[in-house]
Amino acid sequence: MDYLKANPRRISLLALVLVFFASSAPLLARGPMVVVEESEFTAQPVRQGKSVKHGFIVLNQGDEPLQIFKVKPS
């Protein structure tokens, strides 16, 4: 590890390169990428026999098709 102590510029450059690649990793990722801004919804009290409807916006910000096979309400 003496080579790191001898050249602080090398350490700075290495750190800069690592930060650059770490921050650009999501940009290099391939495949579908799901984005849901609102992941939960809490309904107000509802009378028995009435239904509640709510929509969620699901976006694919990836570069390949996103397939949703199953949705399970809880």
Describe this structure in words.
The chain contains two helices and two strands. The chain has one domain (2-60). The termini are far apart. The chain is mostly helical. It has a two-stranded antiparallel ribbon with strand order 1-2.
What structural category characterises the helix and strand content?
mainly alpha
Low-confidence stretches: none
Largest sheet strand order: 1-2
Beta-strand content:
5-15%
State the shape. elongated
The total of beta strands comes to 2
* Portion of residues within helices: 25-40%
Whole-number tally of structural domains: 1
The number of helical segments is 2
What is the overall pLDDT average?
A: 77
- Cα(first) to Cα(last) distance is 54 Å
Rg, Cα atoms, Å: 23 Å
What is the oligomeric state here?
Answer: single chain
Biggest β-sheet strands, sense, barrel: 2 strands, antiparallel
- Which H/E pattern describes the elements? HHEE
Task: Please give a handful of descriptors for the protein shown.
single chain; 74 residues; mainly alpha
